[in-house]
């Protein structure tokens, strides 16, 4: 089931790039990011209430709060940089570079989460890197 949701995530991420590029025409990238974020925020809270998950707020630990806040800051920084890059270049060049996040995430998971780096994941990371360079040039 995780693969289905991961695949949907990829489809929606692709749609995000195309829709954002069209929607940003003549709009400051920071303003565009802020507007998009308001929509994402509203959608997230609608899902919290639809699934009756709001009661869990009180049981979130201080450590979880810290890391969720840091994750939110990283997401915000990523979106601001992504929208700025989209405004400056073609989607077909920005998107492959953005997907280097797969390689960076893999390396960070090995360093910070002690996940195993297998020959298969290393080969995949190298192929993603080579593909990124080929598509971005």
Class from secondary-structure proportions:
mainly alpha
Report the uncertain regions: none
Q: Termini separation (Å)?
A: 36 Å
**Structural shape:** globular
Largest sheet: none
For the CA atoms, what is the radius of gyration?
A: 17 Å
Give the proportion of residues in helices. Answer: over 70%
**Arithmetic mean pLDDT:** 94
Domain tally? 2
List the helices and strands and how they pair.
Layout: H1 2-23, H2 29-50, H3 62-88, H4 91-98, H5 101-113, H6 119-136
How would you characterize this protein structure?
The protein has about 140 residues and is mostly helical. The protein folds into two domains: about 1-90, no CATH class; about 100-135. The chain contains six helices and no strands. The chain has helices at about 1-25, 30-50, 60-90, 90-100, 100-115, 120-135. Helix 2 (about 30-50) packs across helix 3 (about 60-90) and helix 4 runs antiparallel to helix 6 (about 120-135). The protein is globular. The mean pLDDT is about 95. Belongs to the EamA transporter family. Keywords: Membrane, Plasmid, Transmembrane, Transmembrane helix. It holds the Pfam family EamA.
Summarize the structure.
This protein is mainly alpha-helical and 137 residues long. The chain has helices at 2-23, 29-50, 62-88, 91-98, 101-113, 119-136.
Looking at this protein, list some descriptive labels.
137 residues, 6 helices, mainly alpha, single chain, 2 domains
């Amino acid at each position: 089931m995780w693969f289905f949701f991961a695949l949907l995530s990829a489809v929606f991420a692709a749609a995000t790039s195309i829709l954002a590029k069209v929607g940003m025409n003549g709009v400051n990238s920071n303003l565009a990011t802020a507007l998009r974020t308001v929509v994402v925020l509203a959608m997230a809270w609608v899902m919290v209430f639809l699934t009756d998950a709001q009661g869990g707020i009180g049981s979130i630990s201080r450590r979880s709060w810290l890391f969720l806040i840091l994750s939110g800051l990283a997401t915000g920084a990523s979106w601001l940089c992504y929208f700025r890059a989209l405004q400056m270049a073609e989607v077909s060049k920005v998107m492959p570079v953005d997907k280097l996040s797969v390689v960076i995430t893999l390396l960070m998971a090995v360093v910070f989460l002690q996940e195993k780096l297998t020959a298969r994941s290393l080969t995949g990371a190298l192929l993603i890197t080579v593909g990124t360079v080929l598509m971005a040039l």
